Amino acid sequence: MARSKRQALTIADKQLLRQADATPRQGTQPIGRRDLLLAAGLLAAVFAAYQPAWNGGFVWDDNAHVTKPELRSWQGLSEIWLTPGAAQQYYPLLHSVFWIEHKLWGDSALGYHLVNILMHGLAAILVAIVLRRLAVPGAYLAAAIFALHPVHVESVAWITELKNTLSAVLYLGAALQYLRFDRTQKKSDYFAALSLFVLALMSKTVTATLPGALLVVFWWRRGRLSWRRDVTPLLPFFALGAAAGLFTAWVERTQIGAEGAAFDLTVVERFLLAGRVVWFYLGKLVWPADLIFIYPRWHVSQAMWQQYVYPAALVLLVITLWAVRRRWRGPLASLLFFVGTLFPVLGFVNVYPFVFSYVADHFQYLASLGIIALVAAGATLLANRAAALGRSTGYSICIAVVGTLGVLTWRQCGMYADAETLYRATIARNPQCAMAENNLGNVLADAGRKEEALLHYQAAVDIQADCDAAHFNLANVLAARGETDAAIGHFRRVVALRPDKAEAHNNLGRVLAACGQPDEAMAHYRRALEIRPNYPEAHYNLANALVARGQVQKAVDHFQQTLAVQPKCVEAHYGLGNALAMLGRLEEAVSHYREAAQLRPDYVPALNDLAWQLATHADASVRNGTKAVELARRAERLTGGEQADVLDTLAAAYAESGQFADAVAAARKALTLAEKQHRRKLADSLRQRLALYEAKTPFRQRTSNSSPPAG
After folding, report:
1. How deeply is 429 buried, as exposed, middle or buried, from its count of CB atoms within 10 A (0-12, 13-18, 19+)?
2. What integer is the mean pLDDT of 198-210?
3. Taking CA 477 as the corner, what is the angle to CA 475 and CA 483, rounded to the nearest 5 degrees?
4. If pLDDT is split at 50, 70 and 90, which confidence band does 389 have?
5. Dihedral angle at the C-alpha atoms of 239, 241, 242, 243, nearest 10 degrees?
6. Cβ-count burial of 261 within 10 angstroms (0-12 exposed, 13-18 middle, 19+ buried)?
7. Which of 53, 93, 431, 665 has minimal CB crowding within 10 Å?
8. Do the beta carbons of residue 220 and residue 329 sit within 8 Å?
9. What was the pLDDT predicted at 388?
């Protein structure tokens, strides 16, 4: 049987098998000095090639992946593990690493970038170790190509893609440990591999393809698969991978938004897309030119005969490689690994980035290993078989190729210097990228460059009429400019495109309220709260609308719900204080005014109303003239002494503290301002109080009927 099995082996595979048989414990031997030097050199090359990314900033969704404030506690860490949706994606190990990183260097991007680069370097070293364990020629050449290929810059220079580099380390570690189990059959090795595989799944579910990849490797090594030896031990891996994949697909569809018109492809069109995607990634590996953060989104149609060429060519390639498998199984095994690892992003499963493009460099991070290992092995075998001069030439070519890749990677990293640079580079290479236009607008708006931002939001809408994010951002800028009619139009467009977008309903309500349409505004606030019951801004806006309608008690409830979510919201404390004062609950009102003033010492409305209550409260135990004067003076300084209400409060504070001359001076100035501003009601009240101050009437005699200043 052994003889017949050897006869079935291919020519190239015989050579590799003899090499493996001659060193049956390869990979378990102590690591030599040469290996350490090569690994150190590889790591140093990675850090050098990625030097432009060291000080890169946060881009696109980095801020959503870096641990949010509400998750930075120990309770937040438990939510990362126990509550799907707490973090950007349910990858609990990944977000635990982000949690630890935030503890170490906070919001400094440098630490995050260095960790990404380190993980990529470690993954490259593991590539070399795994390929040596498999006796694949050119293991270190393959590792160097993987480490320095510019197609991987997106995975390494983009902080979010720690999910790629971290999961790759765990994926390769699990593969290495399983290969050890395949030789030793020890349970400890098996469970170590299974544990690493589970951790990899908790970092990114593309690693669910590992058991399939291992079967491809075993078929390549042995020429056939044994159900008992090869398949059965991997069944738990397949089950865990399938469960993780299905769960992630559900999350992508229901929580992230991977559904709708952008994903309406027929079965035939999904096969057409898959064929084109495979050739696209192969092309970028062979010739890594014009790499872009967001590639143009193709139009996929089963009515276009040209699109059938891609899957047909792929099928023809598979048939050809199958036909030559008796001479060399390596090419077919490499292609199967490549396509199998790409399967989750070939178009058969919806993933959210398909909204912008069907392809992305970071999608082929692991898959590229199949092609890279094949090319490195082929180049090494050719160089080793050549004469001395030819061998030197071959080695020189390999070194030149690796060096060129390193230079290209260094140049590509510059694109990730900061968000503005990245989006401008994307627009330059993909002018029809609405997402880049919209995101560039966000960057400019955050920098206070509203007019420039407006142009890019408008460009995004012009490119993609149904880009709800661009309509939303454009509406916000227009509302801030006072162009309320145009803003309302864009907000209405957003709620038509995304009826479940709570922020759009809330902001539309705010603009409608400003335009004197309170009933419709309140309807949108309530709709926002139906979508997101704990939405603090919607509770706050609805509370203010209810106060304006005289429904003060209902407003108190919504102010309290705002503070339940955002206990340090200054405006909500102040608004609640006003509502409580209207209901006659003055002591509670004072406590909320005081809280608002403590949270923001320069918040004039809270300073003014707190000072008024301390000067005029009916309860003598609450009044405090000295403190009232201190707060009112601070409010006066902040307003430049040009607000009649603040001066009125200052006069009352002086009177409460017995400084009637100062009270008269402040009241006279307040009266002059009120008359100049045609605030008749306030002016009438000031004349009455001024008369009391001038007569030096004891202020306490009138406080029992006092109320907050009018106007």
Report:
1. middle
2. 97
3. 75
4. low
5. 80
6. exposed
7. 431
8. yes
9. 66
